[in-house]
Design a protein that fits this description.
Keywords: Ribonucleoprotein, Ribosomal protein. This is Ribosomal protein L7Ae/L30e/S12e/Gadd45 family protein. By secondary structure, the protein is α+β, with helices and mostly antiparallel strands. Helices cover about 55% and strands about 20% of the residues.
């Protein structure tokens, strides 16, 4: 995964209002059916991580774990979760993450 490219996409998604920061905002996005992908920080606690993964698996939303501190670096806000709305940003981020997993 090209971390610089991913950070740039996260920052752009936030500025384009295609991203929701924080667990509560992500929960609202998922329940509304508009979440394309949920990203969790590597420092997220095990209980929060399990809750997020269970919520996403129920809704059919993919979850990716990012390196610790990447969300804060990309957005300038100290949050453990970011939900990306369905659309081009979510598709590109998912593609970037799966492309890296295949390599």
């Amino acid at each position: 995964m090209n971390e610089t490219k991913l950070k740039g996409m996260l920052g752009l998604a936030l500025r384009a209002r295609q991203a929701s920061l924080g667990m509560d905002a992500c929960r609202i996005l998922i329940r509304s059916g508009k979440c394309g992908i949920m990203l969790l920080d590597g420092d997220t606690g095990p209980n929060s991580r399990k809750k997020a993964q269970d919520m996403c698996s129920q809704a059919g939303v993919p979850v990716m774990i990012l390196p610790a501190g990447m969300i804060a670096e990309a957005t300038g806000k100290d949050n453990m979760a970011i939900g990306i709305s369905k659309g081009s940003f979510a598709d590109r981020i998912r593609g970037e993450m799966t492309e890296d997993a295949e390599a």
